[in-house]
Write a structure and sequence with these properties.
Elements: H1 7-11, H2 16-37, E1 41-42, E2 48-49, H3 51-62, H4 64-79, H5 100-118, H6 125-151, H7 155-161, H8 166-190, H9 192-206
Antiparallel strand pairs: 1-2
Helix pairs in contact: 2-3, 2-4, 3-4, 3-5, 3-8, 4-5, 5-6, 6-7, 6-8
């Protein structure tokens, strides 16, 4: 099985022009998945959504570079006026509100989880859990820091910005720890990574 590769890398076409279209398509698709996950939004001012799970899974599947671009594309879509943020909101003002820090944290989380996935952390349950934990920490770090800037350092920050999300995030981490390693086992079972490796070697020899 290929090392230092994500699921997206395994399926990536060998020809440069096709690979470019492939990357762009994945980035756009990733941003749309994040937008759809924002439709599941409960609570205010910092809602519980499916975005965290979507961002971390996309990062693990696409890798750090494509994952970050997918998150950036999502934020750009929302800032440009498309109703893709939680509760169907849009506009630059959302970035200055309580959820703004979490949105920026998505970028950092995608970079971290994607990088760890490229190192093979998403292929084993234990390291998948760690990668997801690190990603969540990045999101909380940016989110809570921004909340502190808005309301000051007090208990409200933890009550509104941390405690409501812990249980849900633990469930999301557990789900990712099941899905990602299982996906790699399935790819190995059908022999896709090995076939792709041979195709790449053949293409390199032809070049």
């Amino acid at each position: 099985m290929l090392t230092n590769a994500t699921v997206a890398d395994i399926l990536r076409p060998c020809r440069i022009w096709r690979a470019g279209f492939y990357d762009i398509a994945l980035i756009i698709a990733g941003s749309l998945v994040i937008a759809l996950s924002a439709r599941v939004a409960i609570g205010w001012p910092v809602p519980v959504t499916g975005q965290t799970f979507a961002v971390l899974m996309i990062a693990a599947l696409l890798g750090s570079r494509r994952g970050c671009f997918a998150v950036l594309a999502y934020i750009t879509e929302g800032a440009a006026g498309l109703p893709v943020f939680a509760h169907g909101r849009a506009g630059l003002t959302v970035l200055s509100e309580p959820t703004g820090g979490y949105l920026v944290g998505f970028i950092a989380a995608a970079g971290i989880v994607g990088l760890l996935a490229e190192k093979g952390w998403d292929r084993r349950t234990g390291t998948t859990v760690l990668a997801m934990v690190f990603g969540n920490i990045a999101i909380y770090a940016f989110g809570l820091l921004w909340l502190c800037c808005l309301v000051g350092v007090n208990k409200t920050v933890l009550i509104e910005g941390l405690y409501p999300f812990i249980l849900g995030d633990l469930l999301k981490i557990a789900l990712a720890a099941i899905l990602l390693p299982s996906g790699w086992k399935l790819l190995g079972y059908i022999g896709l990574p090995a076939k792709e490796n041979k195709q790449r070697q053949g293409s390199a020899l032809a070049d």
